[in-house]
Amino acid sequence: MVLLDEISACDEHGLTARAAIRPDHILLPTAALALPAYLGMEIMAQGVAAWAGIHAAERGEAVRLGFLLGTRKLNLHYAEIPVGTQLDVSVAQSWQDENGMGVFDCELRCRTPAAGHETAMPAGSLLVSGAMNVYSPRSDSVLNDLLQA
Fold it and tell me: Which Gene3D superfamilies match (predicted)?
């Protein structure tokens, strides 16, 4: 499942990307005209995964499976994100240890509002923010143990 459309920038501290809420968006409830804002957490988590994958590839390593363990301080500034909205996704590494645990501060902003929503959700509006707690096992044996548990 790919939720990001484009990676805008990536460095050792974080990543920015773009995404769009289209009528056929995989997370969009059937026949809905808007994505529930809490699902923005999944879009932000995919930004974290993209950041990790890019850095693994730069080190010549395989891209590893990662897990979204939860979130802290999840703020839903809007109840929903209308179909047609273009998004800016930003993730910034806050903390990561050598065992694969990490925390990323994430934001989802309106890049371009959906038609008819320009006043209610202007460009630049903060839609969703929070700290994502993630884990990516550093070894196959740890991953196998997790998957067999």
Answer: Hotdog Thioesterase (3.10.129.10)
